[in-house]
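Workshop exercise sheet. Pairs work together: one partner reads the sequence aloud, the other fills in the structure field after running the prediction. Swap roles for the next sheet.
Pair: D.N. / O.F.
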Amino acid sequence: MSRVDEKKLQKRNSLLQTAFELFTTKGVGNTSISDIADRAGVAKGTFYLYFRDKIDIKNKLIGHKTEKLFEKAVEALENDPQKTFTDKVIFVVNNIIDQLEENQALLLFISKNLSWGIFKNLIDSGEKGTEQGIAATYEKIMAEEGDNIESPEIMFYMICEFVSSVSYSPILYKEPVLIDNLKPHIFRTIRSIIAQYQKVPDKTE
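Structure field:
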């Protein structure tokens, strides 16, 4: 990456981080593009070199933050390899839950704004010049599993939706139980979901 590209990436990341801080403290509706540019220390026109409008930076921010979660989970998985496909998925899920428990502002922001359209786009292509944690995780795990899963994209979507919805209250409000007490139930359900999508081996000779 050239020095010019590095500076562009730094400015983009600075705008993203500033937007996150303002969105999670003031709210998206109460944050203007001028607020973001001023806090980031750039001209308002510079903002439009990287993002179309406030909705665009919000969606890019969701993708950026979500990919960071998966990126860290992948790094942890590589340092602590799991034996089976199911074990790998559960390891990644557990790591992401722990990250969200440590950063509850991120959980609030992502859970309110993440859509399947954004998530699907991250799997398909990602943003050039940014991390591709979701795509890397998806491709790595699915490549190792081969053709043993029917409708892997749907299965992955089901797991993500399930984990996101059931983890929200235990992490933020400790209800109906602490997240650590809920984890065994989450993992058992994930195992059940995966089992339903695993192809039955062909025993014909």
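Discussion prompt: The chain has two domains: 1-51, 54-197. What would you look at next?
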